[in-house]
Give the backbone structure.
Amino acid sequence: MKSRKAFWAVMFIVAAILTGILAGGYIAVAKGVPSIKELKQYKAIPGTKIYADDDVLIGELKVERGVYVPSDRMPAYLINAVLAVEDSRFWKHGGIDYVAILRAAIKDLIHVGIKEGGSTITQQLAKITFLTPERTAQRKIREIALAMKIEKNMTKKEILDLYLNKVYLGHGAYGMEMASKVYFGKSVGSLTLPEAALLAGLIKAPSVYSPYNNLMKAKERQATVLSRMEEEGFITPSQKEKALKQPLNLSTLRRGIEANNYFVEYVRKYLEDKYGTDMVYKGGISVYTTLDRRGQAAAARALQEGLRDLDKRRGWRGPLEHHEVDSEKELKKKDANQFLTSADGDIVPGIVLSVSAKEATIKARGVLGRLSLENAQWASRVIDPKSGRVSQIKSFSLDKVLKVGDVVKVGFRSVRGNIVELSLEQEPEVEGAIVAVDPSTGFIRAMVGGFDYARSEFNRAVFAKRQPGSAFKPVIYAAAMENGFTPASIINDEAVTYKGGPKGDWTPENYDHKYYGPTRLREALAYSRNIVTVKLVDSLGVEKVIKFAREIGLEGDMPRNLSIALGSISVTPLELAFGYSVFDNGGVKMTPISVKYITDSQGRILESNDPEGQQVISPASAFLITSMMEDVVNYGTGWRAKALGRMVAGKTGTTNEYKDAWFVGYTPGIVACVWVGFDDMRPLGNQETGAKAASPIWVNFMKAIDTGESLGFTVPEDIVSYPIDPANGLLARDETSGVKEYFKVGTQPKEYSPIKPSLWEIKEPSRLDFD
């Protein structure tokens, strides 16, 4: 009785589908979908191509996603793999496979609802081109009607071409060409049989069968595709067995793909503002930029590693989630380690299957890996998820922080044969930015605006206006060099109180709450002395400091009081990088350039940007402040930058309560600025200064792009040197008893003259700042 009812129910569904075809066709047209004629005449809209400095394509801006490649330029076994697993009767049916529909309808009836697809490639093309992904009977009827219409107006090859270039294959990849580059780092024409089978298997459920999400499931799906190819006669049994045994040489996910996104987005905004969206997305223009691909990749890697290190110092926040799991069953499953050939360094979710005091077994990407106590030691510092309080676990062991069924992030430290070593990881909450510029041209060489573009598209390198703390001090000391001061000028580091502020009297303090008496400006900058800097601003005048800051390119809000001495201004990493570039470029301010030139679809030049500069401070002043910042690195707060092993000038910066950490530094020819902080202005943590949180990122970036040339900073002709007494800045009696100091021609060490504080209306500054 039940089977008879089921039969008539199926017949009713089939009848409904058939009678609804005409209505579905009407609905499709009524909804304003493109005509089949338009689809048949389909040509990919060219949009905009964006190239790096070496003319390698780094991004495209266009209406349609993916990279169009005709099917006759794809391997035959890729096409056969897709047909075998998605629509084996593609060349025979007229758009609808009635046998498949009946089979799907029966399964849907059994499971009560629309669950089985049964769609042909033509139906899938109709859906992805014209329809929404909803699973309803009405949508299915429209899909069938459109598929029949497509088949009547297009050839099978035209249908297949469009399908293979539009189908979604996961991780942002549309079409086979884009997927080939995402998963294997190569063009579709270079795919092997096992690689083609894996891509074909993704179509059904990209996230489920992604090898980056679960390698075992990906391999199982690949085996299904190869079996279907064998059944259809596309490959022989021996070809199938050989393909199954071949390892998957996966591309490292997203590192190469997304490293350029912040810069590409920066260029996109520039193009849209200047040329409009129609030109950008439909004009077929080519944009040749200043980006150094090697430097960009190094910047992204250095920033991510640095933020992960800081996050680990903050403490372990616990597992992502917990699942009940049959660990014995999972541990007995055949693992996929033999197929994992390029996962070193990748960080992915994994589930804990066993854990002891010193070791845990974790399954990630379908692979069983070993986590040792040594590679999780940082998690002994635990952050309470409710209170945020931090506690230290005594006699730390893995079973105190992990349980069977916990889902955690792990990194593949090494993969050697069947032995996979893991490290415990977690996604940093902290953010950061890094910008690198060529001071002689104004070319932006690298720009990373956050930990992960997929997580946050907000470009902190360009739009995050934060206080620079002591990273602003070189601007003040450079202004002093332009206004009669020298590196040997003496200011007394002693207690001073300024009256008349809105919050009452203000007594600035050094980081360590000590006073150092008569102090040379060189020494004051090297050790980031606050009191000397405040007195220096008082002597120069706040307006003169602001005017100087504007001249070198800083455009943010600046308080008109002495708190400016401690960096209470608003500045972006991009602004600060270009401000420092003036010092590295002999006092010449260059116009920032991200686009070298642009051509239209016919190759004609639309725009060309040549380096353009303006002398804003004297070469001598630029050299003096550079020399002073060299000592910031040599023996002051920027000491970590000495690890670069060559001449470096730079300055750290930390704001009140450790909310911002900066390091801005340069060698002859490249300036880089690093900022680290939380978007919501939370403190980074105790002692997380610019020296500790930001300068290691800068060093790792600069090491990665170092050419090995050991160049020094050029000494201008109007610079001379004298031996001075370091205790008082006066001329030494002879060269052997003094230290070398630089001066502008016509100046010499002067007698110390106390600088009396003036009364200024001030507001409370960011006070603690030793970085």
Q: What stands out?
A: DSSP finds 25 helices and 26 strands in the chain. The longest strand covers residues 406-416. The radius of gyration is 32 Å.
